Amino acid sequence: MPHIDTVIRSRRVVTPEGVAPAAVAVRAGRITAVTAYDRPLPARTRVDLGDTALLPGAVDLDAAVQAPGRTLREGYAETAAAAARAGVTTLVAAAAPASPAVTDVAALTVHLAAAAEAAVNVAFLGGITASSTPADLADLRAAGVVAFHCSLSDGAGAGTRPLDDHRLRKAMVELAAMEVPLLVHAEDAAELAAPAGPGNVALLAARPPRAERRGLERVISAARMAGTQAHISPFTAAECAAVLAGARAIGVAVSAQTCPHYLCLPAEQVPDDSASHACRPPLRAGTNREALWRVLLERGDCAITTVGSGHRPGTGVAGISWTLPALWTAARRRGCDLADLSRWTSTAAADLVGMRHKGRLAPDCDADLVAFDPDARHEVPQADPGPYAGRVLTGRVERTWVAGRPVFTRPAGPGGVRPAAEGSAVAAP
């Protein structure tokens, strides 16, 4: 075997073949071998995680980075640092909200410079607006965007405008020719209303599930005509799952992403006036949450293929810090395993945007790795700005490597999270 920089052993390594004891050998930022746990492997650095699991680093699709009042460079630095602590090794940054929105190569160049020193890998979505031209899309793709994003309403935030059916189909035809996917915020603007007051109850009434249904129907119609891979982000209204399934059954290339907060936080369990839980689409009822889980857990051709943080600092849920533990807390209760967790948060997302060298622990893949303790039980600090403050979660990121380089190691002691007290009455997801 060639010279090895690092070997990492765990009795729970998530590989494409399943979860098993293994040793992962890393050289020059790539995985050179996944072999027997006890095989002697000379290396400069040796790490034995024991029962702490080793997962492929998460690939977070459609995560915004810039909070209001922060510079773009600050946004990338802060979000990337949070990502490293959270086991996210690749940020696929949203085109908007951001200043400038990534709708042309000039704006992308600004983002590339701002993200140059980020602690994790950063890739970019290109934004499509009513004024985008075929040349804009081709130039963005040539400059390196891995996918595109559009909205049928206000889901993309300031800097972009919603697409009508003509422009949606026109854009899809261009993307089909480039063989690149389109992520769509699918709430239909015509089905939305101004909230009658503050709080989540008013937001729910103003943004009903039928807005997602109508938007889905528009996306499916355009994708069927153009042959484009469309990915709904985020998908929240479980009653629309049959629409997705029906489209997939007739060969339309449409799939969806949901977020941990839609899977973990029913509207009945959060304060109505909490800014930490305000998002678009809004959090829905517990019955919807359970129905979303039934869709996600379908074996075979499941329409929901990815779970991303939906991170929107300052303008929505700031959830990137807790994606893996929140999702694992809820998934474990439903009989899921670490392979499911990795598929939803890493492998499927990497595959969707053509990152075949990421999202899996296998030879010749990038050594983007996460040490995750699936049994650690801890309480999220009350002061945390995200939606899980005060909740008890199971599962904790202990270390993160990007291209074989350590970018996060949890310090000894509390490390920003407290072990959950025995008998804690705080609800977990």
From TrEMBL:
Annotated source species: Streptomonospora mangrovi
Pfam families attached to this UniProt entry: ALN_composite (PF24890), Amidohydro_1 (PF01979)
Residues annotated as signal peptide: none
Region (Disordered): 409-429
Protein name: Amidohydrolase family protein
Superkingdom, taxonomy of origin: Bacteria
Gene Ontology MF annotations: allantoinase activity
All residue ranges annotated as the Allantoinase composite domain in the record: 7-36
GO cellular component assignments: cytoplasm
Any one of the GO BP annotations: purine nucleobase catabolic process
Chain segments annotated as transmembrane: none
Domain Amidohydrolase-related: 67-407
